[in-house]
Write a structure and sequence with these properties.
Strand order of the largest sheet of chain A: 1-2
Shape of chain A: elongated
CATH class of chain A: Alpha Beta
Strand content of chain A: 25-35%
Structural class of chain A: alpha+beta
Number of strands of chain A: 4
Largest interface: A-D, 25 and 25 residues
CATH superfamily of chain A: Macrophage Migration Inhibitory Factor
Number of helices of chain A: 2
Distance between the termini of chain A: 41 Å
CATH architecture of chain A: 2-Layer Sandwich
Oligomer: homohexamer
Helix content of chain A: 25-40%
Order of helices and strands of chain A: EHEEEH
Number of domains of chain A: 1
Largest sheet of chain A: 2 strands, parallel
């Protein structure tokens, strides 16, 4: 604890490194907790598996 | 917000379209909120990764 | 399975009844699965615990 | 989308504001996405509801 | 990591202690990982916030 | 309900069987509930998608 679950699109390895670094720094600073106890899971989702406004993202992107 | 996480089996694209459409309509109507702010993530799970009653689904299906 | 986690605001009991009824019907129909095996958890969140666009909802509502 | 679920301890309103601001900025920058589409839910957990190393946090804190 | 999210009813402190102890032991044994790196969050849900078979648990319990 | 979400590394089928069996037994015993109503989802995460202490697990493992 703390545990962060990040739901988003496909990411490059570099983006994952920067995301984990940044989210951990912010959390550690705000909560005054050591970085070591902060864990993060990045859930990469296909655009076909995400809905916004009643439509699949993959279909919204085609418009 | 609202955010819906749907854990279920593998689905066809058509099922995903109907699921997102239907879940969004119900949520929008009940909460009197615009569809645009409702997001959904569909998490497709292998039967080997789901347990019910202490057994993997993949093994229960074989019986 | 399927399991639905619904993150949203505080709701009345009647809204929860309609939400569970509607989400279950849609899921059962699309997946051709019996309603009995569909479970839903409604997570009610204070506006102070939800962020959109970098701000707490409770602060956005004041504008 | 993206959607961030943050599981952690009780926080002050100021901490929540800083957390949402910081996590959104990092995500927006790394993913090159507008802040407006990034939502965050902060889940505050009692120390009695969190386990680490097989023990409740509330009991570990007493040692 | 590993991280376990347990969604269930209201529990006593003793139940939470036994649950965290047991779930950690099983996970540590199966994954051959030290208990120290296993975290668990217990999410207690009101029966009014849980739906099964299209109905709120609180209403099913009345039958 | 109860519903357990298990976030961890890649597992063999045998590990999944033992994990589901063990977690269900502990939950059923502690909550005095039938195994049949306990569902579990195992989320296998690549080491590149997990962050601890501000670093991706895949990079920590190289050290």
């Amino acid at each position: 604890m703390p545990f962060i679950s990040f739901d988003g699109p496909k990411l490059t390895k570099e983006q994952k490194e920067n995301l984990v670094k940044g989210l951990t720094e912010v959390s550690s600073e705000v909560l005054k907790m050591p970085k070591e106890i902060i864990s993060i899971v990045i859930r990469e989702n296909e655009a076909e598996n995400v809905g916004v406004g009643g439509e699949l993202l993959v279909n919204r992107h085609k418009k």
